[in-house]
Amino acid sequence: MAIHSQSLVVIGILLLALVTVESGGVFLTRVVRGGVPANTLQKSFFRAGHAHAAVLLVLSVVILSVVDSAKLSGAWDVIARYGVPAAAILMPAGFFLSVIGRDPAGPNRLVVLLWAGVGCVTAGLIVAGIGILAAGLAAF
Fold first, then answer.
1. Contacts (Cβ under 8 Å, ≥6 apart) of 37
2. Does the pLDDT value for residue 138 go beyond 70?
3. What pLDDT is stored for residue 23 in this prediction?
4. pLDDT band at residue 86, thresholds of 50, 70 and 90?
């Protein structure tokens, strides 16, 4: 099974993006140790943003490695191929950006990015999963 050149480019970008997650881990360590002031809400959202970024980037690499075999077309291909990578940007952005500022009591309006990411990851997983499953069953 050959991986499409477009998928290889995106996988390369995603692997490089994992370096930003690594530097985010350094930031998170500083927050937890008290080097960066943050309230309980911010600490929770920063942890969630960091974890979601890492998991979704790795999941994106896995999906892109196999989605070519589904032979999807048009919008279905775009959703399957880019839904989870889009969520890897949107969800962490929602977690981090919705609690910026000094001692926020709750998330701000940018929390909508989190929910946009939820929609992207859900659509991407459903379309990729069905497409890959159909390709596998058709190969029997």
1. 102
2. yes
3. 86
4. very high
Tokens of 5: 């050149």
Helix, strand or coil, per DSSP, at residue 72: coil
- The span from the CA of 107 to the CA of 110, in Å, is 8
Domain of residue 17 covers 5-138
* Confidence at residue 26, expressed as pLDDT on a 0 to 100 scale: 87
Q: How many CB atoms lie within 10 A of CB 67?
A: 25
Q: What is the mean pLDDT of residues 83-98?
A: 96
Interatomic CA distance for residues 101 and 23, integer angstroms: 20
Beta strands in 1-120 (DSSP E): none
Rounded to whole angstroms, the Cα distance separating 113 from 92 reads 8
Query: Into how many domains does the chain fold?
Result: 1
d(CA 35, CA 14): 29
